[in-house]
Amino acid sequence: MAIAAEDVCLERVLPMDEGFALEEVVPETGLPTLGSDVTFQIVSPDANLLVQLPFGSQTQTFLREVRKCCGAGVVGKEDCPPEGETWPGSSKGQSVAGGAPRPSKLHREGTSDALVSSKTLDRRGSTLRSQLLQKEDLYTFLCCFKFFVGSYNVNGQSPQESLLPWLSHDPEPPDVYCVGLQIKLVRRVGILLLLCVRRELAANISDVGIATVGSLVGMGDKGAVAIHFRFHSTTICMVNAHLAAHPQESEQQNQDFHDICARLQFYQQDPSLPAIPLSQHDVIVWLGDLNYRLEEQDIERVKKLIDAQDICALYQYDQLKNQMEAKRVFEDFTEGEINFQPTYKYKAGSDEWDTSERCCAFAWCDRILFKGKTISQLSYRSHMSLRNSDHKPVSAVFSIGVKVVDEQLYRKVFEETVSSLDKMENASIPSVTLSKREFFFRDVKFMQLQMEFFIICNGPIPCQFEFICKPHESSYCKPWLIAKPSKGFLLPDAEVTVELEVFVNKSTATHLNSGEDHLEDILVLHLDRGKDYFLSVSGNYLPSCFGSPIQALTHMRQPIQDMLPEAIRNLVSSYCPGTALLPCDTLICTSSKALIEHVAVFIQTLMPLWSGEDFFWDEKPLDIPKELWMMVDHLCRSACQQKDLFQQPGLRAEFPEIRDCLDTGTLDTFIGSSSSVAEALLLFLESLPEPVICYQLYDSSVERASSFVLSSQVVSMLPTCHKNVFRYLMAFLRELLQHSGKNHLDGNILASVFGPVLLRPPPGRPVPDPAEKQKAQQFIQQFLLLEGSSH
């Protein structure tokens, strides 16, 4: 777990003078453990400290910056291998965790092994690395290594039996073990990925990085963990995933897969370099409980096919196989032939199928897939002898061709490349041509990505480009805009496509709704040793109820996009917390159901269609925003008894229709699942610029969370519109609890879901610690249980 600012305090200050040294401590075995904490010693005239920091890119960045402050640099001839590298193929000086080479004994860090500032990633070094990479085939050869990959959903159980039948199935041990477990409370809550290599190969492992991705909603034990590493000169990525369980359909699993692929990124030790996405690996192995099921729902027919060992016929019903053939998921991945029976679902402790009423359909949930030009599968099997879980583990053995560097050939190619670069360099100023300099994004909507592209074409001179900050600004662009890539290097006559993305989210929508910000920006493209190019970005944003204040929304009786822009800006920008809108007792009713019905009647009678010219500021506002009522009313009418409401994620494709329905009023009812409406409701509450429990009452709410009477006093101090929304939501949640026998919800679940969105710490505060989060949850839970029992 990363160390946050609130985890540390300042006790001593050590001057970084001539007597200061940073010394890395090598384990007694002489061999570092991949992923282990980094231990180093700080030596100064006044102190001798032994310090441990967690493994990861942030720790390596910290160590590098300390070394820079010590005055470390690189010595030697100008045309040595690029900074931070040794002669490839040599194990001496190679890094296991991606940092500096580990010394054999404690010594003061010298200039020979210090990591150099990212500023030395200059034009010459970038060109050299790029050309050496293009000539890689001239100095490398393929060497095959055996990888064991295993996946086991242990169902939260510690094994009571030997794992040797799974891990030692073959007579010859592999070179590398990669083992993935699911539903085990470590790392990504329920997912663990272990990588073990033979001792003599560990020195050839470098650039190790880890990444995690959680499910979009509900988190729980779903998501993925991944490890990236360089084996000799080949980049390999192992992904252990536990996808959402939707037995009747595969859309959610497909969406989870694409989300994981898009969000998995491995940050490099040099923060100036872009993160490495999943796709940029030579070899990828994907394992885990993917939760794809059989399309054949007749269990008896499935059992007959299994008894007859007709695996081929049964495999035709496999969801993953059919989705891959339709190119909806795992495109360009390969899975070996399945010749074993389904790995799920068994009675724990036996080989018998689980035939209970709650039993899901039998399936090959546990899978191993691979991608790459130099990987081939040697075996793929399940292990029926392990009976601890309701899943059977699976394993696969791969032969992976790894690019190994021939040191002599590399030195020869390196010297030839340096000589060639010497001839290329001259005093010419680099220049580029841009395919487009003006960009307009039309009708940008909340949480809807829009993209534009342009091409940078380089001239005859190698060129390093970067979007730079304008004077007095901390970022090269506004927060709703991003350029990919924002920096890079171009060889002569090369070109790169730059993607401009506009994406308005909860943090930027309010300023656009109020008119404080507009979709207008100027990007400055700077060339190293060259001139600057200016790009104009503009567009129009369609206002949305998402990101609008509660008080402003209660004054809008028509859809927000039907209002005049000036009226919207006046309402949103003039929002003042605490303004009285209605008498405090307006929404006090005898029961949750009566309260919901009261608001429904009120809103339906006070929402006539009207033009912007008929708007009067002194009109009586709505009790609550009509958009909130529409979502809650829909859920009350169609989803009160829905199982696991607010716990299962909605489909991302359905959110735009829900948003447009709220913002335009073109439809009387929502299109999409109730889970999608529930997720939109949470996003609506989370995007409020002032949460339902106002920021200024956050501390009072947390302090008084143990007393229902004191908590009620806090609610009574809310502005009337916020108070109405809070009471309305509590009435809705209590209505859900009336159907807990069918929807499987309870007060603790609802409080944990709604607590963080209704009760948020003021901006600039550190992330709440677990105790503070528990108090926020307790505050909400009281109004679900205690207040509900008083009606």
Automatic annotation (TrEMBL):
Coiled coil: none annotated. It is an enzyme of class 3 (hydrolase). It is found in: Cytoplasmic vesicle, Phagosome membrane; Early endosome membrane. Keywords: Cytoplasmic vesicle, Endosome. Its main location: membrane. CDD domains: RhoGAP_OCRL1. Residues 80-112 are annotated as: Disordered. Transmembrane segments: none annotated. Residues 607-791 form the Rho-GAP domain. GO terms for biological process: phosphatidylinositol dephosphorylation; signal transduction. This is phosphoinositide 5-phosphatase. The gene is INPP5B.
